[in-house]
């Protein structure tokens, strides 16, 4: 794989840009797809990472077209040998999603600025993963990492709320580990009841992924239950945490 360097668009400290080739498209339901790309040899990441996935036309003559770039969670680990992202393509969608919808194996995109604001903390605590819809894409790598090495983690619970078509359900329901629990819930009421059942204050770490409204509702709920701010992890820069009362 050849890597590319930014010109007139991004500072070099953000690292190299890679051109990646689509291996396969996996339909998870009528509106949800996983896109799996070849992994550049020198690109690595840890569980919880996200990247920026761009259409090949996003940078023309040094001008960045932000409408053709999306921040995407990586649902795979480097050991799986490919970069995978999962997204929903609703009936009414953007030009970017229209491009994704039309993609076939062999098509190319750019990936860059791969970062991680939510490293897996191994502090001998329970890890509670709370996500909304395709936000579970961020959570799958934590589960994979936990199953490969559970050191420093008392237990792991994955809770996802969705209206149906639960993503990765067969895979995650099939996990056989005494310290892992997987739960899909259909409503906010069920979600908060399940969260309350898992509140252990200083003994748990909470990873929360979803819409802005979802983040704020879940964070407020946890704080009201006495969960320490430092034990709540979100996919935001450190200086942004204050906006969520963290």
Protein architecture, described:
- The chain is α/β, with parallel strands linked by helices and 246 residues long.
- The chain has 2 domains: 3-115, Elongation Factor Tu (Ef-tu), domain 3, CATH 2.40.30; 125-244, Rossmann fold, CATH 3.40.50.
- Helix content is 20%, strand content 33%.
- The chain contains 5 helices and 14 strands.
- The chain has helices spanning 95-102, 136-148, 169-173, 188-197, 212-224; strands at 3-4, 17-27, 32-38, 50-55, 59-60, 63-64, 69-73, 82-88, 108-115, 125-132, 153-161, 180-185, 204-209, 232-234.
- The strands form 3 sheets. Strands 1, 2, 3, 4, 7, 8 and 9 form a 7-stranded antiparallel sheet that branches.
- The longest helix is centred in the middle third of the chain and has 13 residues, at 136-148.
- 35% of the residues are buried.
Q: What's the gyration radius in Å?
A: 18 Å
Low-confidence stretches: 1-13
**What's the main sheet like?**
7 strands, antiparallel
Number of helical elements: 5
What's the CATH C level of the largest domain? Alpha Beta
CATH architecture of the largest domain: 3-Layer(aba) Sandwich
* Termini gap: 40 Å
CATH topology of the largest domain: Rossmann fold
Strand content: 25-35%
Quickly give the structural class: alpha/beta
Summary of the model, kept short:
This protein is α/β, with parallel strands linked by helices and 246 residues long.
Strand-helix topology:
Layout lengths: L2 E2 L12 E11 L4 E7 L11 E6 L3 E2 L2 E2 L4 E5 L8 E7 L6 H8 L5 E8 L9 E8 L3 H13 L4 E9 L7 H5 L6 E6 L2 H10 L6 E6 L2 H13 L7 E3 L12
Parallel strand pairs: 10-11, 10-13, 11-12, 13-14
Antiparallel strand pairs: 1-2, 2-3, 2-9, 3-8, 4-7, 4-9, 5-6
């Amino acid at each position: 794989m050849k890597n590319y360097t930014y010109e007139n668009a991004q500072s070099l400290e953000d690292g190299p840009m890679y051109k990646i080739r689509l291996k396969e498209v996996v339909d998870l339901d009528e509106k949800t797809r996983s896109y799996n790309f070849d992994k550049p040899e020198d690109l690595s990441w840890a569980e919880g990472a996200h990247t920026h996935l761009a259409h090949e036309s996003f940078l023309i003559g040094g001008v960045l077209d932000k409408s053709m770039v999306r921040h995407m969670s990586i649902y795979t680990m480097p050991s799986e040998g490919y970069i995978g992202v999962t997204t929903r393509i609703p009936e009414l969608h953007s030009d970017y999603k229209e491009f994704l919808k039309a993609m076939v194996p062999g098509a190319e995109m750019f990936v860059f600025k791969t970062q991680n604001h939510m490293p897996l903390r191994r502090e001998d605590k329970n890890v509670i993963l709370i996500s909304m819809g395709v936000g579970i894409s961020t959570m799958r790598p934590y589960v994979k990492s936990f199953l490969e090495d559970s050191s420093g983690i008392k237990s792991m619970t994955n809770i996802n709320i969705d209206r149906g078509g639960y993503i990765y359900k067969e895979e995650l329901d099939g996990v056989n580990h005494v310290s892992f629990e997987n739960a899909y819930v259909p409503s906010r009421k069920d979600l908060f009841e399940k969260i309350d059942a898992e509140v252990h204050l200083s003994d748990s770490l909470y990873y929360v992924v979803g819409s802005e409204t979802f983040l704020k509702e879940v964070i407020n709920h946890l704080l009201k239950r006495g969960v320490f701010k430092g034990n709540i992890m979100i996919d935001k820069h450190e200086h942004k945490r204050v906006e969520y009362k963290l």
